Amino acid sequence: MHAPLxxxxxxxxxxxxxxxxxxxxxxxSRGERADAPPAPPPPAPGEGAVLRAAxxxxxxxxxKAPPPPSATRGTAFALGAQGVWLSAAHVLExxxxxxxxxxxxxxxxxxxRLDPNSDVAVLTTIGGAEPLxxxxxxxxxxxxxxxxxxxxxxxxxEATSRLLGRQTLVMRRGGPVHSARPEPVMAxxxxxxxxxxxxxxxxLSGAPVLDASGRVxxxxxxxxxxxxxxxxxxxxxxxxxxxxxxxxxxxxVQLGEPITVENxxxxxxxxxxDLRVAQVACLKRGA
Length: 287
Hints:
This protein is α+β, with helices and mostly antiparallel strands. The protein has helices spanning 12-29, 89-92, 235-244, 264-273; strands spanning 60-64, 73-78, 84-87, 95-103, 106-114, 121-124, 145-150, 157-172, 182-193, 208-210, 216-224, 229-233, 277-285.
């Protein structure tokens, strides 16, 4: 008669390990996956949160403004009544004779008024182009796309961007930082530009920033090239500058054809061709 066989008793940890292994095999056999979902795409203009009002706690950024003669030329655009144009004040600071360039070697004399509280210049000419529609009274949304048609580096060109939010800009003009006046601005992340355009966007100062319906929502005044940021005058600051110049804020107008990333180059060409966006030059500066 044979003695009964005795199997060695597994330790408790072995039993637990076998159970865990069996559960793991069962889960894998069902093809279960726990991958994280892909990152969501950037918000569409109508899907972002409405931009809040400006506060004293908006983050600050310091930008060094290009000195003359680098700032001798910039961009201007028609807004409001015919013969009224807007540009960036630092482009025309100290200028005693300014002109809007309408053709090679030809310009129209413009009277310049610099706003005391923002980087906005109001120009007036005898006659003018059809003004751009305004969107200054409409809410902006984070992630909204902007378009900046103008004359970067002194040549026709444009950029597109997405709205990041509000910031406080300190424009440094050669003096100490504390001597510069802080200004509420909109910060945009550059998302595209004219094919072949390399380097900074100097010369785009004064260009309008347009929403997807082609309405003006600010004035382009600065960039932080290393960070890929474009800064524009906030809509409420631009409206206040217009009031100080004796102008009413133009009512919003809806355009028929929207501006997109596919057609913004053609749209910018049309605005320049119709002289609704023009190059502005300081012909003479004060001593």
